[in-house]
Design goal:
Elements (H helix, E strand, L loop, with lengths): L26 H11 L1 H5 L18 H19 L3 H10 L8 H11 L8 H12 L13 H7 L5 H10 L6 H5 L5 H25 L4 H4 L3 H13 L6 H30 L4 H6 L8 H19 L2 H23 L6 H4 L4 H11 L2 H11 L2
Bound molecules: magnesium ion.
């Protein structure tokens, strides 16, 4: 069923620690299963995507976001002959390194770490699966296969890429230094991530009352399907109008990616997963859809992510992360022993803090500061 350009688990570049194959599962199925059972994955339930966890039960969390990315990714992977298990593993793990409180937490921790090597959430997702999970007797981390780790490390500053590459020559960071692409499965997860958050943030934005359907008429990608929906169902009311519009938006973006990617694959015709890595990015939107997706993203940025009501909550969250960072740096003994005993205190604090759920961070803040 796999296309020649797909990642084949039988030809995986393997794990950092050699393990014998599983009797019934492929290497990428095993990776997916390890991710689902790890602690960091369960924490995603209580980590903010856009709206803070306590603001409402129906808003997306990092967990439901990751599941939606996996669903969209698998659906596209199947029709392109890509490896669905690998796509699912990458999608479920792609946000494991996110801090509590969404982007505000992220930015705050990054600022706190500015003079200690910085903080990047993609790199942190890799640290979680490579180092921080403690589940096996013989090694740290989950010992995932190269292809899953390659997909998790979606972005990385050159300085960090050089550091990783020094420890793991020609490994997961090499592509940031030599300008090649990750696997098509990894490329697909990036596109599926954008499709997922653009759609669900409209849904959550309208549910929260911060976005209106009138405002969204300024977004061509939304307005087109909204008009289609009303033309077909003139008497449709309320949420069903929104849901039908989003459903149409999602479907068209999925079909657009499939069509544009097939066209790109026809031109470059990679004969293997490694050849695909040497090509320009092949999993992509058409030019027109790319522009519309970008316009939607910038609309959400201006009208939702920077909405005064969202900012008010995130300002509080930012202060909480900053306060906790200062306290742990000063009193490492307030962290669990495994973190308190590490030599690189700032990095230990960043690892501990970024692993927290929103509500655990809030409780720690109340315990140590308030
Ligand atoms: Mg994401």
């Amino acid at each position: 069923m796999l296309a020649p350009y797909a990642c084949d688990p039988a030809h995986s570049r393997g794990r950092r620690f050699i393990q014998s194959p599983a009797p019934t599962r492929t290497e990428f199925q095993r990776d997916r299963d390890r991710i689902i059972h790890c602690t960091a994955f369960r924490r995603l339930v209580y980590k903010t995507q856009v709206f803070l966890n306590h603001e409402g039960d129906l808003f997306r969390t990092r967990m439901t976001h990751s599941l939606e990315v996996a669903q969209l990714g698998r659906s596209i992977a199947r029709s392109l002959g890509l490896n669905e298990d690998l796509v699912e593993a990458i999608a479920l793990a792609h946000d494991l390194g996110h801090t509590p409180f969404g982007h505000a937490g992220q930015d705050a921790l990054n600022e706190c770490m500015a003079s200690y090597g910085g903080f990047e959430h993609n790199l942190q997702s890799l640290r979680v699966v490579d180092e921080l999970e403690e589940r096996y007797p013989e090694f740290n981390g989950l010992n995932l296969s190269f292809e899953t780790r390659e997909g998790i490390l979606k972005h990385c500053a050159r300085r960090n890429a050089e550091a990783i590459n020094a420890k793991e020559p020609n490994g997961v960071a090499a592509r940031f230094l030599n300008g090649t692409q990750p696997s098509l499965e990894a490329q697909l997860c990036n596109v599926a991530d954008a499709i997922a958050y653009n759609a669900h943030d409209i849904d959550d934005g309208v549910r929260s009352g911060l976005l209106t359907l009138e405002q969204l008429q300024d977004v061509p990608l939304f307005a087109r399907y909204h008009a289609q929906t009303l033309a077909e169902y003139p008497s449709l009311q309320g949420r069903r109008v929104l849901f039908e519009t989003i459903r149409r938006m999602l479907s068209d973006q999925v079909y657009d990616v499939i069509t544009a990617t097939r066209a790109a694959l026809d031109i470059d015709a990679p004969a293997s997963a490694d050849e695909a890595r040497q090509c320009p990015p092949l999993v992509k939107f058409s030019t027109a859809m790319h522009e519309e997706s970008k316009a939607l993203k910038s609309f959400l940025f201006r009208h939702l992510y920077r909405h005064p009501q969202v900012m008010k909550n995130t300002d509080g969250a930012r202060a909480m992360v900053q306060d906790l960072f200062v306290v742990y740096l000063d009193k490492p003994q307030e962290m669990p022993a495994a973190y308190a005993q590490r030599n690189d205190v700032p990095r230990a604090v960043a690892d501990y803090l970024s692993g927290m759920t929103d509500r655990f961070a809030t409780r720690e803040h109340a315990r140590l500061i308030a």
